[in-house]
Amino acid sequence: MFNNIAPYYDFLNHFLSLGIDRKWRRTALRQLKKKQPKVILDVATGTADVALETVRLLKPKKVIGVDISREMLEVGREKVARVGRNKVIELKEGDSENLPFADNTFDAITVAFGVRNFENLQAGLQEMRRVLKNGGTLVVLEFSRPKRFPFKQLFNFYFKNVLPLIGRITSRDPKAYSYLYHSVQAFPDGDDFLKVLEKSAYKCEYYRPLTMGICSIYVAEK
Fold it and tell me: What pLDDT, on a 0 to 100 scale, did the predictor assign at position 160?
């Protein structure tokens, strides 16, 4: 599915979120500003938006992006080459539940809109913890479900009806953006996700809802 929508992915992300997704990514990465990590892993990197923003905001020595979608990575590599960041950013095909790195490799790990797609959420979190250094930080940016009336109802209508229609017309993949709604509904957001992190042996620092709860930032430490 992600291979199919790769050519349209960036456009649809920015269009369907009215460009707010860029602000969400920057806000998530600013959670790492004080710690100034030098070697960073971006899991479910997709087309490398987070990897590129990481280099701009945090100035690390190395960012490695991992994703299972070959076509998404190809789009990402073109973007990285276009801005001359090949020496800092490396994109690899790989599975979040079987990361091709040694224990205690990374100062920080980021995941933007990816953990809800893990086949086994806890296994993916534990695998990321394995490659994270002691004291290293995990930052997760993920969709959540607004709780307040009437924004909850508007959000559900948009995600369930409007967004899949626009995505289907634009990307010509009928599954892609209807899948998004169902994956968000199934994801254990808020305090429930903090419990999953704790069960995976992370020390949870905090979580922060954004834009009336459309998405949330979760920060945890190994």
Answer: 85
- With respect to residue 183, please indicate whether it lies within any of the assigned structural domains: no
Structure tokens at 78: 């073109």
Cβ contacts of residue 108 below 8 Å, gap of 6+?
Answer: 32, 35, 37, 40, 41, 132, 136, 137, 138, 139
Number of domains comprising the chain: 1
Is 194 a domain residue?
A: yes
In a domain, 93, yes or no: yes
Range of the domain at 56: 2-146+188-221
Residue pair 108/40 in contact (Cβ under 8 Å)? The answer is: yes
Q: Specify the CATH number for the domain of residue 48.
A: 3.40.50.150
Report the pLDDT value the prediction gives residue 7, as an integer from 0 to 100.
Answer: 64
- pLDDT at site 76: 97
State how far the Cα of 64 lies from the Cα of 75, in Å rounded to an integer: 15
- C-alpha 190 chain-centroid distance: 16
Number of helices and strands in the chain (H, E): 10, 7
The reply to whether 156 falls in a domain is: no
Do 110 and 29 meet the contact criterion of CB atoms below 8 Å apart? yes
Q: Can you list the residues of the chain whose pLDDT is less than 70?
A: 1, 3, 6-8, 10-11, 16, 167, 171-174, 176-177
CA distance 30 to 50: 12
Name the nearest CA neighbour of 215 among 195, 196, 187: 187
